Amino acid sequence: MTHANTGITGWNTVKTSLWWWKLKAVQFVFVVVFEHFVFTIVRLIDLLIPDIPEKLEALIHLEDSFAREMMKEVIEIDLEKLEDVRNRVKVKKRQRQKYD
Question: Cα angle vertex 73, ends 67, 76, to 5°?
């Protein structure tokens, strides 16, 4: 591959000056600084704008509370039924013991 201006072939024969390396270093630093600037802005936007609107979050919390209350009622009803079944079993055992 021939260089357009000099007629030199290949990358190994191209001589780079100290100025060129300084330019590449400055370009690299600029890219890194700009990248961190963009990441910082994106992170700030992410922190400032909530993922879930406040109204929706309140409704979700209300629904969770309602579900917990319903589960407590179901558990209380089930415990009452369980206690009732245990009492019936005890009564049946006593009745059987009378006939044994």
Answer: 140
Distances (CA, A) of 27 to 15, 36, 38, 40: 19, 14, 16, 20
Angle 65-68-70 (CA atoms, 0-180°, nearest 5)? 110
d(CA 52, CA 19): 52
**In DSSP terms, which residues pair with 9 in a beta bridge?**
2
Longest Cα–Cα distance of the chain, Å, equals 119
What is the structure's pLDDT at 38? 98
Instruction: Tell me if the pTM is above 0.85.
Output: no
